[in-house]
TrEMBL record:
Coiled coil: none annotated. The keyword Signal applies. It comes from the Bacteria. Residues 48-88, 96-107, 114-130 have a biased composition (Basic and acidic residues). The keyword Signal applies. Keywords: Signal. Residues 1-28 form the signal peptide. This is Preprotein translocase subunit SecF. Residues 42-130 are annotated as: Disordered.
């Protein structure tokens, strides 16, 4: 009898230990092992389920406020970026207009210049103008690349 009692106690303790280990594993496991209810859970968590009126709580309003603030922040950043880009384009266009006006002025023949001096000056001015226009275009390309990165 004494031997039988010892075996019963030992086997029941082993059984309890296995149940205890299984329960800790089950608690650590994901909610749905076969992903059969995951769509329903996400459906209900968004508040579109049949009991959506009962699911509203203080946490739900906090989430809405957080989402609204996040949306407002992104919208402000987008508007600020558009404003900066518009300002860069305005500066670019102004710089280009000034350079074109200067180029036109420099290309005209002056009263005291000979034809040969005028042609030489025109050639130098054309090279300088092309170099300046490439610089301005490179600035615009840099703006476009910078905008694409953001």
């Amino acid at each position: 009898m004494n031997c039988m009692l010892k075996k019963t106690i030992i086997y029941s303790m082993l059984g309890l230990m296995q149940v205890g280990m299984f329960s800790s594993v089950a608690a650590a496991a994901p909610v749905s092992l076969y992903n059969d209810n995951s769509q329903q859970i996400s459906y209900l968590s968004r508040g579109h389920g049949p009991d959506r009126d009962h699911r509203r709580g203080p946490g739900r309003d906090d989430r809405r406020d957080h989402d609204r603030r996040d949306h407002d922040r992104r919208e402000r950043e987008r508007r600020e970026q558009e404003r900066r880009e518009q300002e860069r384009r305005r500066i670019h266009n102004e710089r280009k207009r000034i350079e074109n006006e200067r180029h036109e002025r420099e290309m005209r023949r002056r009263a005291h210049e000979s034809r040969k001096e005028w042609r030489e000056r025109q050639e130098r001015e054309k090279q300088r103008h092309d170099r300046e226009m490439r610089t301005i275009a490179a600035l615009l390309i840099g703006i476009a690349i910078g905008s694409a990165n953001n």
